[in-house]
Design goal:
There is one protein chain. 20% of the residues lie in helices and 30% in strands. By secondary structure, the protein is of the alpha+beta class. The protein has a five-stranded mixed β-sheet with strand order 1-12-14-13-11, sandwiched between helices. A five-stranded antiparallel β-sheet has the order 7-6-5-2-8, with no helix packed on it.
């Protein structure tokens, strides 16, 4: 189904101040009176250890165990239980909703004071909070690190996404986003990683957050953000972003000037879409 879209949004300035998750709740349930739709797709475990069971009760057998801080996909709700998908091991089950929370959308971090080199700040989960920090290249790093020419180029699908996004910005009286080679490479790596490792998250097990990757490549920025989606068609993915308030904030952020857009084929979603935004 073309309209069955999953998407996430994250905004941050300089640090990973708010990795956030938001789903469009488009999944359909076969038992309308039992399943409840949820308005987000990714959650994080708050208990030290959390059983995943075959059904929404402690009477059901355990099919897996989640650890504190682990990311999972939330598909639906049954009473006080979430139906979850564990992307690393690939199983579906039910887990208590008391010990799974959503990352709030729209958390923001602003640049000002120097961050300690080599450290990764803990993410905040409070919507629209701000923190102070400055973006500085790592000691001894070259400010002109090379890019992967193949990954830094934009393909036809990604070009379509860019045109649709810039059309929305034009309607709002904003300037067009310009493709940055390093951002393009990062977006492509992130999309490829999601497909290869079969997960859907702003936090890559291999690369960390998009902002971690930007710092590692000496990308100096004042503000940055990321939208991701899974769908077969570019217009549907962009349409879902535009319809979501938090995703639209990234698209229509007047402080963003540069972007990287990647679209990679996915057997699970049709295609994975990643767009990174940046303001210098």
């Amino acid at each position: 189904m073309n309209r069955k879209i999953v998407l996430l949004v994250v905004t941050a300035l300089v640090l990973i101040g708010g990795t956030s998750f938001l789903g469009d709740g488009s999944r359909q349930a076969s038992a309308a009176g039992t399943f409840q739709r949820v308005d987000f797709i990714s959650g994080v475990v708050t208990a030290d250890r959390l059983n995943v069971r075959q059904g929404p009760s402690t009477e059901y057998s355990s099919v897996g165990m989640l650890e504190k801080g682990q990311f999972i996909n939330v598909l639906a709700k049954i009473g006080n239980w979430y139906v979850i998908y564990e992307p690393n091991k690939g199983y579906v089950g039910a887990a208590s909703a008391n010990y799974i929370k959503q990352y709030e959308a729209g958390a923001v971090v602003t640049a000002s004071n120097p961050a300690t080199p080599g450290t990764t700040p803990l993410p905040t989960v409070t919507s629209n909070q701000k923190e102070e920090a400055a973006q500085t290249p790592a000691p001894g790093a070259s400010p002109t690190s090379k890019t992967d020419n193949k990954r830094s180029s934009i393909n036809e699908d990604a070009q379509q996404v860019l045109e649709l996004i810039n059309r929305e910005r034009e309607k709002a009286g904003l300037g067009a986003l310009v493709v940055d080679e390093k951002l393009q490479e990062i977006a492509t790596l992130r999309a490829e990683d999601m497909v290869e490792k079969n997960y859907f998250s702003h936090q890559s097990p291999a690369y960390g957050s998009p902002f971690d990757m930007m710092r590692q490549r000496d990308v100096v920025f004042k503000t940055a953000g990321e939208n991701i989606a899974g769908n077969r068609l570019a217009e549907n993915a962009v349409g879902a972003w535009v319809d979501s308030e938090e995703h639209r904030k990234n698209i229509l952020n007047a402080n963003f000037d540069y972007t990287g857009v990647a679209v990679v084929e996915s057997s699970r979603y049709g295609k994975i879409f990643v767009q990174i935004f940046m303001g210098k």
